[in-house]
Amino acid sequence: MLLDVSGLTGLPGGPYHFTLAAGECVVISGASGIGKSLLLRMVADLDENHGDVSLHGVSRASMPAPHWRRQVIYNPAEPGWWAEQVRPHMRPAEAALALLPRLGLQEKLLDAPVSQLSTGERQRMALIRAVIREPRVLLLDEPSSALDEASTLRMEALLAQLTTTGMGLVVVTHNEAQARRIAHRRYVMTSGCLAEIIV
Ligand SMILES: Nc1ncnc2c1ncn2[C@@H]1O[C@H](COP(=O)(O)OP(=O)(O)OP(=O)(O)O)[C@@H](O)[C@H]1O
Q: Mapped to the 3 state alphabet, what secondary structure does the chain carry?
């Protein structure tokens, strides 16, 4: 199993259990405020949490936190940026250049200040920023919340291609049509547990 989450507890409650295979896209949905973002943050080890989380059978507890976070990347709906321009965030830059047109973004945006990008442009740039780091698992929190339909479909096509490389995706979305399009398996989060639903 690529990712195995067992008995995970923390601020949103729990214990939560779920699995993710290599090349799989798992969608998590649930009521607003139930704790989906906090769950993803716990998996990425960004907030205090307890439980067993492993990657390819290797326990998260056995590796330094930065090593875990390079392999399991959390991408929030409204990502943070640490430099003024877009380009310094893009390493390696060549990989970013190749992905820009896939998401309908112009190359000149790399040299724009982050603050001048539209919300949807920032959201797509942040996805590229995460993808080019080649994580084994990408945790995506409402990745198309700021996107129009055409951009959403382009983003979904990229996600599908990523799964063919073996990357595992966990996607939180409120968009039911999107969940049906992209999910290999689905969970619904209710207070205290994740229930797998048949797709
Ligand atoms: N750092 C925090 N400390 C305390 N409570 C928090 C913290 N962050 C979030 N919460 C609360 O925890 C609950 C779950 O938040 P979370 O953002 O995970 O919900 P969500 O399921 O992702 O919601 P949505 O679908 O609206 O994005 C909310 O009631 C939120 O106010």
A: CCEEEEEEEECCEEEEEEEECCCCEEEEEECCCCCHHHHHHHHCCCCCEEEEEEECCEEHHHCCHHHHHHHEEEECCCCCCCCCECHHHCCCHHHHHHHCHHHCCCHHHHHCEHHHCCHHHHHHHHHHHHHCCCCCEEEEECCCCCCCHHHHHHHHHHHHHHHHCCCEEEEECCCHHHHHHHCCEEEEEECCEEEEECC
